[in-house]
Amino acid sequence: MYKNKKSGFLGVFITIVILVVIVIFSNNNNGEASFFENAANKIVLPIQNGLTYLKNKVNGNQTFFADVKDLKKQNEELQKQNSELEQSLRELENIKTENEQLKEYLNLSEKYSEYKTIYGYVVNRDISNYFKTIVINVGSNDGVENGMTVIGDEGLVGHVVSVTATTAKVQTIVDTASSVSAIMSTTKDSIVCKGTLDSDSELKAMYIPTDANIIQGDSIETSGIGGVYPKGIHIGTVKKVIPTQNITERYALVQTAVDFGKLTSVLVVTNN
Amino acid sequence: MKRVIINMVLILVTFIIYFLQLNFFSWFTIDGVKPNLFIILVLFIGLFTSKNLGAIYGMVIGIILDLLTAQKIGFNALILGAVGLLAEIFDKNFSKDNKMTIIVIVSITTIIAETTVYILNYVFLNLNIDMFAFIKILLIETMYNIILSIILYPLIQKFGYYIENEYKGNRILTRYF
């Protein structure tokens, strides 16, 4: 494969560097300025500052356009006021949703106290890209049985699909083979939440009734229909409604309450 | 005796790859997509040893993976066994010294194996089919596997020809000329 040993080594080295760069860049999408952006800014900013200073100086000397200046000033003031008002509105909305959420949590903790649970750790995950089962460190010795519901601190995780003496495999709700029967907490419309391939934290809410009103940020909980999951366990919140040409086909994306990427400990509900 | 040592090394490599796949590559991902090191491992075992050994390794590794993580037992065993057999076909028809053939072999094997796993699971587990997402993940995974095999190939080649001499005798030159 490599006739020249030196160039072969160089090729491998370049491939490793490319791989590392791809990995870093593909996973770095949290809005922070990257190293290269910072470097570019450092080079460009002094020049830009100088130019801005010059421009301001030139503008300042023009007394001829006094009227325009007044108007500009007024405009600025109004814009400032407008943004302040918008901000206070947003704050109010935030407080409103926070209030609702706190009320929900209060209900949630009361609900969870009814269940008898077994505490377990996540010890293994599926190695492939297409399935999202997890393995936990409690099994039939601890009283775990097939089909039991598994919850996390924030909400529903999944259900047990197979048990050994000391471990149990759990099919998470984000797995592509999983469907959860659910209701929207405010409108009480029933939907089905299915796992998607491309996201670890989103569910696809399907079979939405045509007359249903979907509210963004509305909380989704299990309906108890089907008998797999008990009623009233928090699943997540509506993130986005995707309309389609035919209203029967529209679906919504549901943000799961549990962060499956960082899930480390779970509770197995023993009395459904 | 030599063969015993070779097999012990291969088993050790399997363990190392298992922990790499489970821990390191669960965060060292391209856009959240992991590579599949087991396909590369079984493929190269099949390429450099006899046909049966590749298939046996594939089956055993597959069954262990099924028992540890999968929902239904047998799919991984079936697919990795098939990868071992596929490797023998590639070995008969292609040269292992060319970079391009290695890239083609790895990509074809990855695509066939993952697509078959997905279809099998679709039939038996009633997946929610999601064509675009699947194709996107498959392409990224194939690319990742190619990059990894390019990086690891000098190492694999050295060890691989050592194994091949042991299992098939030194007929690397006589076969092609």
Low-pLDDT segments of chain B = none
SSE arrangement of chain B, N to C: HHHHHHH
| The CATH H-level homologous superfamily of the largest domain in chain A | Rod shape-determining protein MreC, domain 2
Helix content of chain B: over 70%
CATH class of the largest domain in chain A: Mainly Beta
Beta strands of chain A, count = 12
Mean pLDDT across all amino acids of chain B:
85
Query: What kind of sheet is the major sheet of chain A?
Result: 6 strands, antiparallel, barrel
Strand order of the largest sheet of chain A: 1-2-5-4-3-12
Give a verbal description of the structure.
- The complex is a heterodimer of chains A (272) and B (177).
- Chain A contains 3 helices and 12 strands.
- Chain A is α+β, with helices and mostly antiparallel strands and 272 residues long.
- Chain A folds into 2 domains: 69-114; 117-272, Rod shape-determining protein MreC, domain 2 (Thrombin, subunit H).
- In chain A, the strands form 2 sheets. A 6-stranded antiparallel barrel of chain A has the order 1-2-5-4-3-12. In chain A, strands 6-7-8-11-10-9 form a 6-stranded antiparallel beta barrel.
- The mean pLDDT of chain A is 81.
- Chain B is an all-alpha fold and 177 residues long.
- Helices cover 79% and strands 0% of the residues of chain B.
- Chain B has 7 helices and no strands.
- In chain B, helix 2 (37-48) packs antiparallel against helix 3.
- The longest helix of chain B has 38 residues, at 131-168.
- Chain B starts with a helix and ends with a helix.
- The mean pLDDT of chain B is 85.
- Chains A and B meet through helix 1 of A and helix 5 and helix 6 of B.
